[in-house]
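Human: My hope is that you can spare some time for a protein that puzzles me. I am handing you a single protein, as its sequence and its fold in token form. Could you go through the record with me and say what the backbone is doing? Take your time, and here it is.
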Amino acid sequence: MQRITIKDIAAAAGVSHTTVSYVLNKNPNQKISDKTRRKVIETARNLNYIPNENARSLRSDSTHCITVALEKSITHTRFSGILQGIREELGKEGYGLLLTGFQARDNMKNPYYLDSVLQRRADGIIYISSDGLSPACSKNIETYNLPFVACDCCPDEESLASVSFDYEKGAFEVACRLFGEGSKRILYWQPDAPTFQETYRITGLEKARELYPGTVIEVCKMPCIPDDASPNDRYPLIDDVCRQSLVQNVMPRLALFEEGDAVVCSWGVMVKHLCAALYQRNDKRFKIALLSDADIPVIPNIRVLTSRPGFIRGGRESAKLLLSQLRGEDVNLRVVLDPDPPTYVEL
């Protein structure tokens, strides 16, 4: 028989899952009418809801530690920035963090990040993934009713707290800036990965193109390296693949572009190799833009238009949102952060 969750109770009672959580956990900091309280309790009883005592005990016995679940390399600009923001915000409140992956040990039923909270080694979970939120993760969090924030995942479940970056707006603003300055064609150099971030960015670029008649967006995809590449091999491999993509795909396309047209790069490593190649050739002058928080390479006489998503800020907001849950505060479950306005960096 499937375990009844607070989401099931909320749907049957016609209230939010947050209200159900407050009632069942007897949160004294929230003003809930007696009528709503009775309705929630009656609905839970009718559905034969069995509270998870492990999860309930977490609210009253703090470990002052938060589990951060992250599968990608922490040397990546996006994830290192998010982690930095989380650490800074948790530190202000006297919390530490426990960094773990998504895997489970051989003798464990649940992933380590989940067991770390159920076994009371941490108070809550911040889950970071560029590949979205897995169905198994969503089910586990709803089943155990645990303090949880998804960062950079864009989960479909409205009941789960999340912090996301507006990738579409960042790409849209950069393209509008470039088209407004006279560029007629933009080559978007992106990783060949089916991520929602890249889907949003393509949407933003196309929306900008529609506002400027006679302009063109072209897409050039860089092959991705295997996910199982070791940390020591990963970045040399990315460098090699990036150089090959530049020589075989990007530069031949740019030969057909006019001076003043633009290249928009998804990753910082792309800008590094592109700037070096254009500096050496020194023929047509193209505009260059970057949709990342990565540092700009130091190459003379090259300007790079940057739109920074604000990954450190995203980490801080994720920690704030989780700590608010732990304090029993009424929170906005969906936080979407605007990117910084496009700005040229002079080198």
User: Anything to note?
Assistant: The longest strand covers residues 185-191. Residues 258 and 284 are 7 Å apart (CA to CA). DSSP finds twelve helices and twelve strands in the chain.
